[in-house]
Amino acid sequence: MSANVFVMVMVALVMCGQWQVYAKEEKLLVKMSLVRNASAIGAYCLDGSLPAYHWHRGFGAGARNWLLQFEGGGWCNDIQSCLARAKTRRGSTRFMSKWEVFSGILSNNASLNPDFYNWNRVKLRYCDGASFAGDSMFFNGKSLLYFRGQKIWEAIILDLLPKGLGQARKALLSGCSAGGLSSFLHCDNFKNYLPTNASVKCLSDAGFFLDERDISLNHSMRFFYKDLVSLQGVENNLDKNCTSSFYFPELCIFPQYTLRYISTPFFILNSAYDVFQFHHALVPPSADPRGHWSRCKQNPAECRPNQIDTLQGFRQDMLLALRSFYNLSRRGGMFINSCFAHCQSETQDTWFGIDSPRIHNKLPRFDQTIAEAVGDWYFSRRVTKEIDCAYPCGTNCHNLIP
Ligand SMILES: *[C@@H]1O[C@H](CO)[C@@H](O)[C@H](O)[C@H]1NC(C)=O
Ligand SMILES: *[C@@H]1O[C@H](CO)[C@@H](O)[C@H](O)[C@H]1NC(C)=O
Ligand SMILES: *[C@@H]1O[C@H](CO)[C@@H](O)[C@H](O)[C@H]1NC(C)=O
Ligand SMILES: *[C@@H]1O[C@H](CO)[C@@H](O)[C@H](O)[C@H]1NC(C)=O
Ligand SMILES: *[C@@H]1O[C@H](CO)[C@@H](O)[C@H](O)[C@H]1NC(C)=O
Ligand SMILES: *[C@@H]1O[C@H](CO)[C@@H](O)[C@H](O)[C@H]1NC(C)=O
Fold first, then answer.
1. Smallest Cα–Cα separation from 117: which of 194, 177, 180, 63?
2. Which atom of ligand 2 is nearest the CA belonging to 36?
3. Superfamily of domain 29-387
4. What are the entry keywords (predicted)?
5. Which of 151-155, 162-166, 234-238, 388-392 has the lowest mean pLDDT?
6. CB 399 within 8 A of CB 339
7. Containing H/E element for 395?
8. Separation between Cα atoms, residue 231 and residue 147, nearest integer Å
């Protein structure tokens, strides 16, 4: 059972030598539930611990609606990095926080989360290292690693079905970063578990990882994912229509190739200058050994003109990869902004607030927050496909300066 408490957080700041109350906010903390019988289908975290989720019950008109949110947190694509991860909160529920803050799209406050606040909201904890999509294991006589993300996904769904998910009227499968990739990979499968008359849709936040060459022209993301797919046994869980059309089936882990085979309505939320992709896919340390990009990575205002050109090229490639979705997907939605951000749905100040990101190249009345764009799309209040103009466009960006 998931219990919850409200915690009053008083933030006091020393200003002008005096203590002043600077802000007062209520945070919703939700307790972790372990999936006790996950072992029945061999669903374990990397280290063999039980998988878990956090559930805050829906109420009122939202009592029969369900939002499932995959947690993100990168991947591990070789034994060494998976062994290291198994000893952290990214690979074991034993090391995870037992209480999670539910904010942004997970908030239960109507003035912070206007469309989903009263739904059942579930956060699926990430502990497999392959976006909930692997099914394999490793044992060399000494070390043991479970690569069971697909089973974890199934065990959590099976656990939630009798708790009300099985009678859902409306559902949204969401996730951020590696969890945003999970949304692409599991979207149609999710729909199959729910009543045929339920309204089921999916959202990916910062999960549109591009098949892009890095600045040294190496296909580094492709190599990374190829190792991930083969190490963790992901290929069988990729879309069959996609894998049967590709000579290199592992490419179907890239959303741009699998997207056209997803039949469930989908919303793509991503920055065109996603900071994770900028730092790890476009300019990974291996491609910039002398650190020419260090200053630009710290602060976009310090980028040289040729570096800005490279970033604009990345944006162009992302828009190209999204072209047929933009033009052809009738029930799809998108919000591609021009901030140096990564994950914008779970933090309150990017999801829905006075100064949260907006796209301004539309009429003022369409000048919406991300929460409104996603809500309008989900409830079919209007078509929401928005692409901001290129950097330095980007309104109310909450840029991540690492
Ligand atoms: C909901 O959020 C608003 C805006 O931050 C705040 O004023 C209000 O106290 C919150 N309500 C509850 C019940 O937490
Ligand atoms: C675990 O128990 C729940 C509740 O009885 C059940 O719905 C679910 O199918 C079980 N899960 C597995 C993996 O057997
Ligand atoms: C779906 O069908 C079931 C059974 O007929 C019904 O109880 C339920 O209200 C329907 N759900 C929706 C969203 O129409
Ligand atoms: C290309 O990228 C892969 C994956 O990051 C890396 O292992 C490899 O060393 C890179 N190759 C070159 C020539 O930099
Ligand atoms: C996937 O393939 C099946 C069987 O060939 C077909 O019925 C289905 O429509 C295809 N789905 C998509 C989205 O192409
Ligand atoms: C839609 O397609 C047209 C024609 O191919 C193209 O010019 C346009 O850029 C596309 N729109 C987007 C947003 O990709």
1. 63
2. 1
3. Alpha/Beta hydrolase fold, catalytic domain (3.40.50.1820)
4. Cell wall, Cell wall biogenesis/degradation, Hydrolase, Secreted, Signal
5. 388-392
6. yes
7. none
8. 8
Instruction: Name the β-bridge partners of 30.
Output: 4, 100
Domain ranges of the chain: 29-387
The answer to whether residue 3 scores a pLDDT higher than 90 is no
In angstroms, what is the span from residue 159 Cα to ligand 5's centroid? 28
Distance 204 CA to ligand 5 centre (A): 22
* Apex 105 CA angle, 365 and 183, nearest 5: 105
The helix or strand, by DSSP H or E, that contains position 298, with its residue range, turns out to be: helix 294-298
Cα distance between residue 319 and residue 330, in whole Å: 17
Residue spans of beta strands (DSSP E) within 129-239: 136-139, 144-147, 170-175, 199-205
How many angstroms separate the most distant Cα atoms in the chain? 68
Residue 287: per-residue pLDDT:
97
Report the nearest atom of ligand 5 relative to the CA of 241: 1
Ligand of minimum distance to the alpha carbon of 262: 5
What is d(CA 126, CA 45) in angstroms, rounded to the nearest whole number? 8
Query: What is the rounded CA–CA span in Å between residue 379 and residue 148?
Result: 34
Q: Any idea which residue has 């072992």 for tokens? A: 39
Residue from 37, 153, 157, 167 whose mutation best tests the ligand 2 pocket (most atoms within 8 A of CB): 37
Catalytic residues: 177, 274, 342
Cα dihedral across residues 38, 41, 45, 49: positive or negative: positive
Q: Which among 192, 241, 262 is the best mutation to test ligand 5's pocket, defined by most ligand atoms within 8 Å of the CB?
A: 241
Q: What is the pLDDT of residues 209-264, one digit of tens each?
A: 999 999 999 999 999 999 999 999 999 999 999 999 999 999 999 999 999 999 99
State the distance from the centre of ligand 6 to the C-alpha of 317, rounded, in angstroms.
Answer: 13
Beta-bridge partner residues of 203: 267
Distance in Å, CA 233 to ligand 4 centroid: 22
Q: Which of 260, 276, 267 is nearest to 335 (CA)?
A: 267
Q: What residue's CA is closest to ligand 2, atom 9?
A: 158
Both tokens of residue 314? 């990345």
- Answer yes or no: is the C-beta of 34 below 6 A from any ligand 2 atom: no
